[in-house]
Amino acid sequence: AGIPTGRSSGAVTYTIAEPCVDVMDKSCVEECPVDCIYEGGRMLYIHPDECVDCGACEPVCPVEAIFYEDDVPDEWTEYNAANADFFVELGSPGGAAKVGKTDYDPPMVKALPPDMKFPTLEPVKALLHHNIKEFTNLAAILPEVYAEFYDEFVN
After folding, report:
1. Which residues pair with 68 in a beta bridge?
2. Is the pLDDT of residue 86 over 90?
3. Which of helix, strand or coil describes residue 16?
4. Integer angstrom CA distances of residue 130 from 34, 43, 92
5. Which of 13, 28, 110, 126 could form a disulfide with 51 if both were Cys (CB 3.0 to 4.6 A apart)?
6. In the structure, what pLDDT confidence band is assigned to residue 144 with cuts at 50, 70 and 90?
7. How far does Cα 105 stand from its chain's mean position?
8. Cα 68–59–85 angle (5° rounding)?
9. Which pLDDT band holds residue 105 (cuts at 50, 70, 90)?
């Protein structure tokens, strides 16, 4: 099952998990056709009642932080509750653009160590592969950095 979403069908939705903390790339926000991805202080959250379960957000996330609620890896299942908790006070405003960025995060997310951006190299690799065109443009400015990262992460 999953976190109750207020849907009469009992359907589940998508959850954003730990890889998003302190990254917030927002590719998913741009892809979402119903504007249901809200920005907290340290990560993004999908509104369970506004999401239409289209899945458009999942493949564009460069750090692979978005999962169908029932498919969240075991080490991140607490993010199902954190995602629901984010909306307890906010309610259902009918679109993230109306609300804009908030400084709120559920206590579990707020309590994480600062600057979780890259606790491992996997998100760095994912960002580089996802944004290789932008990174290639950066290469013209920083040739030594580009060569080092290209050899390590792309080849």
Report:
1. 14
2. yes
3. strand
4. 23, 19, 31
5. 13
6. low
7. 13
8. 40
9. very high
